[in-house]
Specification:
Layout lengths: L15 E3 L9 H9 L10 E7 L2 E9 L3 E8 L12 E2 L5 E6 L8 E8 L5 E4 L15 E2 L10 H10 L7 E5 L1 H4 L1 E2 L5 E2 L2 H15 L3 E4 L3 E2 L12 E5 L6 H13 L3 E6 L25 H4 E2 L4 E2 L6 H17 L4 E4 L2 H5 L21 H17 L4 E4 L21 E3 L1 H11 L10 H5 L10 E5 L11 H4 L4 H17 L3 E5 L24 H19 L13 E8 L4 E7 L6 E7 L5 E8 L3 E8 L15 E4 L9 E7 L3 E7 L1
Parallel strand pairs: 1-2, 10-13, 10-23, 13-16, 16-19, 19-20, 20-21, 21-22, 22-23
Antiparallel strand pairs: 2-3, 3-6, 4-7, 5-6, 7-8, 7-9, 11-12, 14-15, 17-18, 24-25, 25-26, 26-31, 27-30, 28-29, 28-31
Length: 652
C-alpha cells in the first residue's frame, strides 16, 4: 500500500502588526520565567521573528548575552557590518533585543556580533534559537517562519493510545543521512521529502510502530551523526527546510507511525559559531573544565544549575514536541549527566556539596524536564539512554525518580549479545547471560535496544556477531530476535538489522538494499515483519511489559540443552502466549513443557520456517496439552524445538 501524500499546502502566517516603536515580543512575565529557569516556550520569544511595525515589515531579534557590552545583528542585509543594527539590553535579564526594519526578511542570513565586557572579546555567533541554518559547512542562521498545514489530525487525536505503556511499541532506529542514498547522483543523501513516502512505506510494511531518528538538530560535523549539536531548535538543513522535515513527520503520522527524536542535552561542540564561550564567558557551559568539559567527546557540558540554561533546554524539547508534532524524545548519554566523575580520573572531578559523585543540578534538571513534558504533552513519551544502575530512572518525580517514561536496557543488550557470540557448544555455561535480566526487569520501564552503537567502531554487524556457518548465523539472529520479542519490554532495532547486513554501519553509505535479493536475507526481513505483526496482534506480548504479572518462566534452568521457555500474559487471565527458544543447532524432539491450560496449543510463529530460511522443522501447526503435570503446572505439551529457533504458541 502506498503512503498517503500529506500534500504541499501551506498556511501563511502574516507578521503581527505593531505600533510604531513597539517591537518587543518579550513581556515582563517572559523575563521572570526565563531568569527563574521555568520558561519552556522561549522559541516564541527569542531568536528571529518577522514582524510588522506600522507599514513596515521587518525582523525582531533577541538573544541572551548577559556579559556583552555590545550586540549587533550582522547579515546579508547590512553587508555583515558590526554595529550597523545594534540590539539593546532588556533591563537586567541579560537579553538583547531589537528590530531590523530595512532589508531583513524571510531567508536572510545572519549572525550576532557580540562584544564582551572582558577584554573586548568579539565573536560572531549563530542564533541559538534559529529554526533554520545554512547548509554545513556554512554556519549562518536564516530568518524563517514555519508555514505548514498539518494533515495528521487523526494520528494526533489517537496518539495517546499508540504511546501508552500498554501499547505495542516497536521502534525502527534510523540515521536519515544513510538510510537510503542516490548512488546515481554521487551517492547523495535523500531529502526529507524524498525520504517521506519511501521511509513510511518501508517501516509500515515491516510492521514497526515507531521510528527513532538519530539527532536531526543542526550539527556542523557529519561524522558526529548529529550528536554534536549546535542548533537545538533547527532540523538540519542538509536534507531541506524545516517545513520539509514537517512533511516527513506528517507523512509518517498519516501512515500510523510515531516519531521519536534523539536529543542531546548532555554536551555540545566547541565550534566557534556555537554556544561555547558565547558572550566572552562560559555562559551555557561550566567555567571549570572539571565540570564543563567532556573528556570523551572533547565537548562542553551544560551548566544545569544555571536557570537560563534550563529554560533554553526545556524550550528546545518543547519546540520539537509542539512545533514538529514529535511523539517522544530519547535523551542521549544520561549517565554522563548524572555522575560528576563520569569518565574522569581521581582529581579530575569536583564532588557535590555532600561529597558525592552525583550531579545534583543535572538530576533536578532532568526531573524538571520530564515534569514539563508530561504536564504539557500528556500523550508523548521520554526515553533515557542510561547505562548504569541508577535507580528509578523511569519512575515519577514525586516518588524521587527522574520521571522518564522508559529506559533503555543496556544490560540486556550486553549480556545477550555476549551470549550469542559464544559457540553453541559453550552456551550451556553462560545461561545466566540470558536469564539475569529477569532479576531486575520490572525495576524500570525498559526498552530492549539493538541500536546503532552495537554496529560501529569495529564491533561488526549483528549478523557478524553470530557464530557458526552462514546458515547458523542467520538462524542465530532469527532466534535472537524471537527471544527479544518474547521478553517483557518495548523493542528497538537499528536499520539494516532487519536485513542481516554483513558489514557494520557506515554513515556515508546506505543500507545494503541489494541483500533483499538473497533468500537468507529476505527470509530474515520477513521474520522481522512477522514478529512485528504477532507482537502487535497478541495483547499478551505487549500489554503487561512493565509488571511481573505479564511474565512467567516455565523453565529457565535447562542450561545443558540451552533451552528457555516462558509464558507471557495479557491483562485478561486467559490471554497467554508460550515461547520456547533453542539456542543450539541440535533439534530437540519430545521436549516436554508445562502449560496452564488443556486443549490444543497452536504454533503461531516458528523462526525455523522455510520462508525465513530455516530447515522447516516444527509442530505441524500445534500440539495437544495433556493432563501430565510438569514444571509445576497441571498440563504439559510435547514439543519439537527446531535447531537454533524461537517458537511461539497460544491456546486455541
Amino acid at each position: 500500500m502506498k503512503s498517503k501524500d500529506p500534500g504541499k499546502k501551506s498556511q501563511k502566517k502574516k507578521p503581527s502588526r505593531r505600533a510604531a516603536g513597539d517591537t518587543s515580543l518579550l513581556g515582563d512575565q517572559d523575563l521572570y520565567l526565563f531568569n527563574e529557569g521555568t520558561h519552556s516556550r522561549l522559541y516564541e520569544k527569542l531568536g528571529s521573528h518577522q514582524i510588522r511595525v506600522g507599514r513596515k515589515a521587518g525582523v525582531y531579534f533577541a538573544v541572551w548575552a548577559p556579559d556583552a557590552v555590545q550586540v549587533s545583528v550582522v547579515g546579508d542585509f547590512n553587508g555583515w557590518k558590526p554595529g550597523e543594527n545594534l540590539l539593546h539590553a532588556r533591563g537586567q535579564s541579560g537579553i538583547w533585543e531589537g528590530a531590523v526594519l530595512e532589508g531583513a526578511k524571510k531567508g536572510s542570513i545572519y549572525k550576532y556580533h557580540i562584544v564582551s565586557r572582558f577584554d573586548g572579546h568579539a565573536v560572531l555567533k549563530a542564533d541559538p534559537f534559529a529554526v533554520y541554518a545554512e547548509v554545513p559547512p556554512r554556519t549562518g542562521s536564516r530568518v524563517w517562519t514555519l508555514d505548514y498545514e498539518w494533515n495528521d489530525q487523526a494520528w494526533m487525536a489517537s496518539r495517546k493510545e499508540h504511546n501508552s505503556l500498554e501499547a505495542p511499541i516497536s521502534i525502527y532506529e534510523v540515521h536519515l543521512g544513510s538510510w537510503m542514498r542516490a548512488p546515481e547522483e554521487g551517492n547523495r543523501s535523500l531529502t526529507y521529502r524524498e525520504l517521506a513516502s519511501k521511509l513510511a512505506d518501508y517501516v509500515k510494511g515491516l510492521g514497526f510502530t515507531h521510528i527513532e531518528l538519530l539527532p536531526i538538530m543542526e550539527y556542523p560535523f557529519g561524522g558526529s551523526w548529529g550528536y554534536q549539536t549546535t542548533g537545538y531548535f533547527a532540523p538540519t538543513s542538509r536534507f531541506g527546510t524545516p517545513e520539509d522535515f514537517m512533511f516527513l513527520v506528517d507523512c509518517l503520522h498519516q501512515n500510523g507511525i510515531g516519531v521519536i527524536l534523539d536529543w542531546v542535552p548532555s554536551h555540545f561542540p566547541t565550534d566557534e559559531h556555537g554556544l561555547g564561550y558565547f558572550d566572552g564567558t562560559h555562559l551555557y557551559e561550566h567555567a571549570d573544565a572539571r565540570k564543563g568539559f567532556h573528556p570523551d567527546w572533547s565537548s562542553y557540558i551544560f551548566n544545569y544549575g544555571r536557570n537560563e540554561v534550563r529554560s533554553f533546554l526545556m524550550s528546545s524539547a518543547s519546540s520539537w514536541l509542539k512545533r514538529y508534532h514529535i511523539d517522544g524524545i530519547r535523551v542521549d548519554a544520561v549517565a554522563s549527566m548524572l555522575y560528576l566523575d563520569y569518565s574522569r580520573e581521581d582529581g579530575d572531578w569536583i564532588p557535590n556539596e555532600y561529597g558525592g559523585n552525583e550531579n545534583i543540578d543535572a538530576i533536578e534538571f532532568l526531573q524538571q524536564l520530564n515534569r514539563m513534558v508530561y504536564e504539557e504533552f500528556g500523550d508523548v513519551q521520554t526515553f533515557a539512554e542510561e547505562s548504569t544502575a541508577w535507580p528509578m530512572v523511569s519512575r515519577p518525580t514525586y516518588l524521587g525518580g527522574l520521571g522518564f517514561g522508559m529506559k533503555w536496557d543496556m544490560g540486556w543488550m550486553h549480556d545477550t549479545l555476549e551470549y550469542m557470540s559464544k559457540e553453541a557448544v559453550h552456551r550451556k555455561f553462560h545461561q545466566n547471560n540470558l536469564t539475569f535480566r529477569m532479576l531486575y526487569a520490572f525495576q524500570e520501564n525498559f526498552v530492549l535496544p539493538l541500536s546503532h552503537d552495537e554496529v560501529v567502531h569495529g564491533k561488526g554487524s549483528l549478523l557478524g556477531k553470530m557464530t557458526g556457518d552462514d546458515w547458523q548465523k542467520f538462524a542465530n539472529l532469527r532466534t535472537l530476535y524471537g527471544y527479544m520479542f518474547a521478553q517483557p519490554a518495548k523493542k528497538l532495532l537499528f536499520m539494516g538489522g532487519e536485513l542481516g547486513q554483513w558489514s557494520e554501519w557506515d554513515h556515508e553509505s546506505s543500507v545494503e538494499w541489494h541483500l533483499a535479493e538473497y533468500p537468507l536475507h529476505a527470509g530474515l526481513q520477513l521474520w522481522v515483519t512477522d514478529l512485528n505483526r504477532l507482537y502487535r496482534n497478541e495483547p499478551a506480548l505487549h500489554e503487561v511489559d512493565f509488571s511481573a504479572e505479564g511474565f512467567e518462566w516455565i523453565d529457565c534452568g535447562d542450561s545443558d540443552q540451552s533451552v528457555v521457555s516462558l509464558l507471557r500474559w495479557g491483562k485478561s487471565g486467559d490471554c497467554v502466549v508460550m515461547v520456547a527458544s533453542n539456542f543450539t543447532p541440535v533439534p530437540r524432539h519430545n521436549y516436554r513443557v508445562g502449560v496452564p491450560f488443556k486443549g490444543k496449543w497452536e504454533e503461531i510463529l516458528n523462526s525455523d520456517g522455510k520462508d525465513y530460511g530455516g530447515s522447516g522443522q516444527g509442530n505441524m501447526g500445534g500440539v495437544e496439552a495433556v493432563p501430565i503435570p510438569f514444571h509445576g503446572r497441571p498440563y504439559s505439551v510435547n514439543l519439537t524445538l527446531p535447531p537454533l529457533s524461537t517458537v511461539f504458541f497460544k491456546p486455541e
